[in-house]
Every structure is written in C-alpha cells, then in structure tokens.
C-alpha cells in the first residue's frame, strides 16, 4: 500500500539547522535527481534544514499515526518548514508504504505517476530538497515507511 499527498506553498525566511541524511534518504534524493536529469533539469542540492523539517514531520506522522501536510494539532506546512529553512517558495511530497512499496525507487515512481507530485519534482524553481523517512508501525501496518520530501527555491 502506498499513499501520497503534494503541496506547494509560498513561505518567508527561517533558520536552518544541520542534519546528515540516512542511506535511504540519500537514495530518494538520487532517484529524484535521476528523474530531473531525464527531463533536462538541474540536480537538487540537499539542504540540512529541509532534511530536519522532513525527518521531523515523517517521525511525527508515524508516532501519532496521521498522514497530512499540516501537523496534527500543530503548525501548518508553511510554518513547519519556515522554522528550518528560508525560502520564498516551498513544496512537499508525502508517501507511506509497506513491502516493496517502501523502497526509495518505488516512492519516487509513485510520485511521478501522480500529477501534483510530478509537478513539484519537475518544478524548475526548486533548487534544494530535504528527505526524511521514518520506519515502524503505521496505520496498523508493521514495517511501514513514512516519507516526507521538502523542496525549496533556494
């Protein structure tokens, strides 16, 4: 099972904090950049603040068992990302899956098959990205992976 949501928002500046990527998060970024290269677009650079924003949101969704751009009972998407990374334009893709559908290539393939997700991935304005993945029991499914990819114009 794999579900996804996409969102594009304008945001003001924010403070960024550093975080390194896990191998799975790095594989998602590599797959995103392969897709962008096939469409004549430049590679996305990893922004540590976006990694932190994405990872925090994936973890929060997993722990509190919800799937949404706004945090459950907390800030909306723009405010959440604004805390971690300054950019006038940001976008977000979400996904969760079990079995083979939790693999990075499957997640990116699913996003590309969905017009709103595809539009975010192929948006020429986006230059940086941060991917976060959490793994555990989600919506009654053991061994599920929850992904957040946050994109920004700078």
UniProtKB/TrEMBL annotation:
Signal peptide location: 1-16
What Pfam family is a match, any one?
Answer: CAP
Q: Which SUPFAM superfamilies match?
A: PR-1-like
- Specify the domain of life of the species encoding this protein: Bacteria
Where is each SCP domain found?
29-139
Q: Which UniProt keywords apply?
A: Signal
Keyword ATP-binding attached: no
Which PANTHER family does the record associate with it?
Answer: SCP DOMAIN-CONTAINING PROTEIN
Identify this protein by name: SCP domain-containing protein
**Species for this entry:** uncultured Thermoleophilia bacterium
Q: What is the lineage of its organism?
A: Bacteria, Bacillati, Actinomycetota, Thermoleophilia, environmental samples
């Amino acid at each position: 099972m794999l579900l996804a949501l996409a969102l594009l928002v304008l945001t003001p500046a924010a403070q960024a904090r550093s975080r390194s990527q896990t191998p799975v998060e790095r594989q998602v970024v590599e797959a995103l950049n392969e897709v962008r290269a096939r469409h004549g677009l430049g590679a996305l650079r990893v922004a540590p603040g976006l990694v932190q924003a994405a990872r925090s949101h994936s973890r929060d969704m997993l722990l509190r068992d919800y799937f949404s751009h706004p945090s459950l009972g907390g800030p909306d998407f723009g405010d959440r990302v604004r805390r971690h990374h300054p950019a006038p334009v940001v976008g977000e893709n979400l996904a969760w899956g079990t079995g083979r559908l939790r693999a990075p290539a499957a997640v990116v393939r699913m996003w590309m098959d969905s017009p709103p997700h595809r539009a975010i991935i192929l948006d020429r304005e986006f230059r940086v990205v941060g991917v976060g993945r959490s793994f555990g029991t989600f919506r009654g499914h053991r061994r599920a992976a929850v992904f957040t990819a946050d994109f920004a114009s700078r």
